[in-house]
Structures are given as C-alpha cells and as structure tokens.
Amino acid sequence: MISRVEIQETNRMIAEANLDVRTITMGISLIDCADPDINKFNENIYKKITTYAKDLVKVGDEIAKQFGVPVVNKRISVTPIAIAAAGCKTDSYVSIAKTLDKAAQECGVNFIGGFSALVQKGCTPSDRILIDSIPEALAVTERVCSSVNIGTSRNGLNMNAVKKMGEIIIETAELTKDRDSIGCAKLVVFCNAVEDNPFMAGAFHGVGEADCVINVGVSGPGVVKRALMEVRDADFETLCEVVKKTAFKITRVGQIVAQEASKRLNVPFGIIDLSLAPTPAVGDSIAEIFQEMGLEHAGAPGTTAALAILNDNVKKGGVMASSYVGGLSGAFIPVSEDHAMIEAAKVGALTLEKLEAMTCVCSVGLDMVAIPGSTTAATISGIIADEAAIGMINNKTTAARLIPVIGKEVGDMVEFGGLLGYAPIMAVNKFSCENFIKRGGRIPAPIHSFKN
Q: Do residues 166 and 388 make contact, with C-beta atoms less than 8 angstroms apart?
C-alpha cells in the first residue's frame, strides 16, 4: 500500500524537481514484414507499425493525466532495418526511412529508432546498403533515428566500420548543413549496444525481444539534486545512500507507469531504464548535481569520481525497485541537452578530453557534442575508436553522437531546438590519426572476453 506521505513526496518531485517519465517506447519486430519487393516491404512495415502503435500516444497522455506524472515522449523502436530489409532487392533503403517517418507521423510519436546496423564483426550486403543510406535518410526525414554498432567486448572493434562511420557523419553533416547539421544529432555509433534501450537516438528493437514490448525510460536529475541539497555537508557514505534511495523512488514511479501502459496497450512490459537524462531546462541537469556535490563546474578535478558515484548508486537504487531494470540505466552526459554542461564547456571547465574520461563511468559516452565543421572524417573516426575502446575493454556500452557543424568553428554556438538544446562548438585535437585509421581490419577482443 502506498502511503499518503509517499504520494505527497512524489507530487513534490513532479511539481518542484522536474520528475517525469521521459519516454514510453514501443518496440516492434519487423522480421515478419520481410519481402524481396521493397515496395511491399514498406507497405508491410507501415501497416504493422501503425496498427501496433496507433494508441500509444493516447494511452501515454491518459496515464499522465490520471496519475499526474508527465509522460514527455512517446516513441517507437523497430528491428534494425539492415536485418529486417535484408531480403529486399534494392541498392538503397532511403524509401524505408521515409516509410518509418510517415508511420511515426501517423502514430504521433516524436522519434522512431531502428534505422540501424550491427556490424561489430563484419558487414553483410544489407549492412552496407543501410550505412550508405544514412546521410540521405536523415536528411529527408524528421523523426527517424539511426545507429550503428561497430564493436563489442566479445568481438572486438570493426575498424573498417569505424573508418566508414567517420565519413558517413561528415556526409550527413553536409546534407543537413542548412539546419546546423542536425542530421548528426539523430545518429549514434555504439560499442556494446543494448537491445532494449528506450532512449533516442540509439533505440532499436533487438532480435532477441518479443514481437512487441513496452520499455519505459524515467528521468529525474532535478529530484536527485534536490535530495542532495538536504545533505550538503554530509560524508560520501551518506551522499551515496541519498542517491540510492532517491533512485529507488523514481524507479517505482516508472514501474507503475510501465505496468499501466502495458496493460492498456495489451503489450508485454519489457524494462525500466532509469537513466538520469537532462534537458536544457534549469533544474533538470546532471552538471547541477555535480555542483551540489561540491564541484565548481562539470569538468573540475573530481568530476569523474562524482559521476561514478552517481551512476553506480542510481543503478543500485533502481534494481531494488524493479525486477526488470534494463536499457542503459545510469547517468547520461549530453552536452547540448544540459544547460550547466553547456556553461561548463563555454567557460573552459569541460573539454572533449575530460568528457572522454567521464565516459569510462557514465551510462553511454560522448553525447550531443558539437565540433567544428572543418573536422576531418579520420579525426571523427579516431574519436569513435577511442570511445569504443573504452566500452570494449570495460565491458560497458559506450557511444559517440558527434555533430560537426558545417560552417561553424570553436567559439560559435549552435541551436538545435527542443530537447536537443544548444551547444558551444568544442575544440578537437588537431593532430592527425589518419594513418592509424586507414589500417582497417579488426581490433581483436580483449583477453577477458573469453568467458566460456
């Protein structure tokens, strides 16, 4: 039984500390839509998505109204298109991206993820078609998100794919340069991608999942910050306990919403992803939590330790609140989506190198980082390789969502709008890694990957 005190506490979290259900994401398998005729395939996937997800937005809004918990986004993830469309006789998947975009618009969701390929050990012909289609696909659609998994701790890193993705990111930036290269904000390069991630732009519906599931992402950095304000002078043991207990309470809210959405949509409940995902709003910031912990700015000495504390105790609290905590769960550190991270980058406290160090202990990696439009494809590939190596060696998910903004350089600002926010262009190391990247081949998996 939930007590009156707990109800009042949750209401305060919502009203005063920006607690929300960040997304209800419906995962839909497209495996049974396969057809050699791409027009028939497009017809099949449009029908399936719009049938399964037709009530997703309505149900999300009804739950928000009934329980008083904001449900900010309703989204869809689908089977990686490089898998689902592998039987199509075609040399481009751009029409599939357009179909996904049309289906997302029809259902009323803001993003649909799964224009994706999993190439950690090599590429199939379908993978190559998908990757080559990414720049145009993201340029001609509004809601489609794309991801490519180029490595795992078990398989090592596919450096041919790493090199190719640097080139794809530059091409995507060029094709959307009239909109500050926003296409790159919808493209993630992963190591150790997970199959049940409800957050964009990296969501896809894994082949090990059911035909259709509901995954919920809950976020509450403002709630954690407010809780820490009550123990400002306490030691680290106390601080950790506060984060853990707060994460437990936040996850319970998500559990209730997820179960209700599952019941009303008649779709199995998948996982709760408790990832502290910031927004550009003041009071909804990961970097503000660091400041409450005692750091002047994100990026100051001690930031990586502070993030490790946050990430670990968020997970500990979450797993006690739900039997099905999954996705990425922890703390995201997107630069453009966190006003205090933006400020830290502007004043020079936060650099790309410090961000990379922080990704050793956060949920994902280099996220929504705007870099000079003059950055070379090889340099971008080098940054991806560094980030993927962290994930491979540490057996964790890492990713790079890098945005080379064509026509802008260090010191300029870029506006993406909405939840994507705004960001300063961050400096990139100008020394070349071209000869390293052009070697190609695969970096073998680390010795500790041999578990059998």
A: no
Do strands 187-191 and 156-158 pair parallel, antiparallel, or not at all (unpaired)? unpaired
Are residues 126 and 85 in contact, defined by beta-carbon separation less than 8 angstroms? yes
| Alpha helical stretches, state H, 266-365 | 286-293, 303-321, 339-347, 352-358
- Read off the tokens for 144: 């489609």
User: Distance between CA atoms of 178 and 187, rounded to whole angstroms?
Assistant: 17
Give 77 or 361, the one with higher predicted confidence.
Answer: 77
Does 13 have pLDDT greater than 80? Answer: no
Measured on CA atoms in the order 175, 77, 223, 221, is the torsion positive or negative? negative
DSSP 178: G
Confidence bin at 10 (pLDDT 50/70/90): low
* Residue 292, both tokens: 């409450």
C-alpha 210/C-alpha 364 separation (Å) is 25
Joined tokens for residue 423: 């960001």
> Taking CA 201 as the corner, what is the angle to CA 399 and CA 136, rounded to the nearest 5 degrees?
105
pTM score of the predicted model: 0.91
Distance (Å, rounded) from C-alpha 82 to C-alpha 116?
6
